[in-house]
What does this fold into?
Amino acid sequence: MLRYGRVLAKSAFRLAVATRWVGSGAGFGGVPKESADVVVIGAGVVGLAVARELALKGREVLVVESASTFGTGTSSRNSEVIHAGIYYPRNSLKGRLCVRGKELLYKYCAERGIPHKQTGKLIVATSVAEIPKLEALLRHGKENGVEDLRMMEGSEAMDLEPELQCVKALLSPSSGIVDSHSLMLSLVGEAENCRTTVSYNTTVTGAHIEDSCIHLHISESKELENHHGDSPSLPQLILFPKLVINSAGLSAVPLAKRFHGLNVAVIPPAHYARGCYFTLSKTKIPPFSRLIYPIPEDGGLGVHVTLDLNGLVKFGPDVEWIDSIDDISGFLNRFDYSVNFDRSGQFYTEIRKYFPNLKDGSLESGYSGIRPKLCGPQQAPSDFLIQGEEIHGVPGVINLFGIESPGLTSSLAIAEHMVSRR
It folds into this structure.
């Protein structure tokens, strides 16, 4: 096997992969074809963690990313919270991988000097009617193996956090925060040191099955920039790897539907929920030293208080269900990430339930992110879905669907779980 770069079409599109050359006239209208060992689609935190883990096991990995750098989607547009494993049903992938991922993540960050902090978290009930939901969260956490949770009366919680108002609270000492960019930068570096190649500005637009092997359709992202609709022109390259990990995040479901030969009946529907964040201005001292979370709401964990490692106080995210967009726009992350300041009115209302001293005019527009969900409005929360050959029937293809929160916390555990399957 040789590793080399190839210029495709009329661009400076370079792919360095473990390959053997098949020939520019081979199949699919004369499109060049190359073989590879492993292709990971998507350079978010989960894709990078999986690539690193596979590379450490001796696999030759190519990460294909449509953006110009890593982590431009969901991985960089979240609360950067290290979750404890409280919210998820017993024996769920989210529960198991969050608890294991938290352990791995704290260890990984400590050993490599990645900025992080074990802040602790209070989940609060602001009315008597919410107490049963808080007790259910305590049960879930214990069932998932979170051993350090403690229920406390509102007065005790308010002694810990004087700006807080609540009637009861659940303390999670092992929750924290992490610098997600530094984490991903470390994962990229370690993967590349093990001969992983990351090809940015490179989009997988679909695939077909040939000789019982998946053939990925690859194009340079800029070739798709002016494209509108769902049917791009011929790919610039076809890759046929031994193993494909579809870790495309927001695009994972629509991309899998373009893998002609997969059993489409088992591909779940995609739903998208935008969440906005507002930041606290006009304060020199943060009002809280811990993360503060309300009772979860439909589609999310509620408008909560997050502290970043620079002391900035953030509130969010809320939940706004949005329509899907055409496939190519999704592959290129053309989602609307603007923050409508008019949404701040509802933020004031929600935040003052547990932070009554929040002053008018103290919220500033922050940023937004979009969750790749497998459940829609008023539907029960869904689990991570890791789907392999035993489900869809195509050898060497693993789809990662619905990797929303706690995806960041779970990233190293997802990678560990994936490699254990191979």
